[in-house]
Amino acid sequence: MDSYYDVPEGVDIRGRYDEEFAKILTKDALKFVADLQREFRNQIKYALECRKEAKRRYNEGALPGFDPASRYIREQQWVCAPVPPAVADRKVEITGPVKRKMIINALNSGAKVFLADFEDALSPSWENLMRGQVNLKDAVAGTITFHDKVRNRVYKLNDQTAKLFVRTRGWHLPEAHILIDGEPATGCLVDFGIYFYHNHSTFRRTQGAGFGPFFYLPKMEHSREAKIWNSVFERAEKVAGIERGSIRATVLIETLPAVFQMNEILYELKDHSVGLNCGRWDYIFSYVKTFQANPDRLLSDRVQVGMTQHFMKSYSDLLIRTCHRRGVHAMGGMAAQIPIKDDPAANEEALELVRKDKLSEVKAGHDGTWAAHPGLVPACMEVFNNNIGNASNQINTAKWENAANITEEDLLQIPRGGRSMEGLRLNTRVGIQYVAAWLSGAGSVPLYNLMEDAATAEISRVQNWQWLKYGVELDGDGVGVKVSKELFGRVVEEEMVRIEKEVGTERFNKGMYKEAC
């Protein structure tokens, strides 16, 4: 007969049965998730309604800005709880999906932290999500191994491994395979709840030195969303019987509205915070999304929207100042480059770009940075070690008072640069290839020597949408044509031909390229 999951009252599982999955989808773990869902669902619904309301205001011409009602939080002197010693040093963090081989390579990479991702680097199929939970449980237990049959090689953990942080999905994403009282569960409560329930005790003993587990929290737009997380953490600590402030989380500042709420977000998570992080690509995507009704705020080609743009530099400087003033880490952005094995000159050039980017981050005051590939870890580490020396971080040394004068205008300044046909083509080509991989179950995708995740597809898609909506003139490469449906249709057709040439006809026909297109 068919096996099925043993579920508590009111919980229904629609995902396929697997005996490995049944070890993590236990009755007690599911009850823990269901209790969180029932306790917080109304607050979550309200927070998501508030997002819609804010969007409506922006579409009517309002600008995001600092909230006068919470000025006292921004102006008062207060600090977050002291940083747990186990994660004082976060000079380089490696990110990647919760796939088995990736977890082992990342934990062994020499980075200080591994961000294991249930979010933008993972295609959120039932298989990926549940297999990811199984993998993390084995990783925390220290027993994880992987036999690569193609290379006939067994991967296992070194003695020294990176500290594990887990990134859940955002508040807005439902988990359709698990119904609680007839409604889809909130994705992040599933990701958090199952992982926390099975691993908190082992993690605190073996990795966290009495603290943990550690998390990354994505896509927040307002401090009320951080407040819900804080309550979730307090509830979990109480159920587990561990002391308050054990769980710690770094919040990604990757939406435009959140940059005006950084103090407030840290304040809500005061006892559970380990800082903020600059989520660059998503931040730029959010800039377009926030101003979607505004034809005066068009983005230039995305390759030109880097950290030297005034609005991006203002965002990172304000984030650093805010974190250090409140006693926590200010984490830098992603180095997405992948080592280029067959071209040493191109590889050295790529590494030089990474070093330059990381040098400007460490000099700006960041306490650590992200890399997408183990091959980049040594270069990033070297830059941070050379500039921070023996210290674990710059929390107490880089105060950056000059950032106190950053205004709303600085944070909203329109990016400079041209818009080109090549930009439209790149967005289309990268967007289609990423989505094709995502539909096939891969969320972390190497394209043109960069490791791309969902943020890349989002920014490519939304930029094409913006240019189409406003019939933008492409003047960047002297072509001077306007983006129209006809032009875009032609570009898509031509880029599909190019993709087929690049990946080969067999792979093109087997892959999900047509669906993606």
From TrEMBL:
Record-annotated active site: 167, 453
GO cellular component, one term: glyoxysome
Domain Malate synthase N-terminal: 9-70
Domain Malate synthase C-terminal: 420-516
Top-tier EC class: transferase
EC code: 2.3.3.9
GO BP: glyoxylate cycle; tricarboxylic acid cycle
Keyword Transferase included in the entry's annotation: yes
Tree of life domain: Eukaryota
A Pfam family reported for this protein in Swiss-Prot or TrEMBL: MS_N
CDD domains in the cross-refs: malate_synt_A
Pathway note: Carbohydrate metabolism; glyoxylate cycle; (S)-malate from isocitrate: step 2/2
Malate synthase TIM barrel domain: residues covered: 163-414
Record's catalysed reaction(s): glyoxylate + acetyl-CoA + H2O = (S)-malate + CoA + H(+)
Gene Ontology molecular function: malate synthase activity
Subcellular location: Glyoxysome
Keywords, in A-Z order: Glyoxylate bypass, Glyoxysome, Peroxisome, Transferase, Tricarboxylic acid cycle
Keyword Lipid biosynthesis carried by entry: no
Family label: Belongs to the malate synthase family.
Name of the protein: Malate synthase
Lineage: Eukaryota, Viridiplantae, Streptophyta, Embryophyta, Tracheophyta
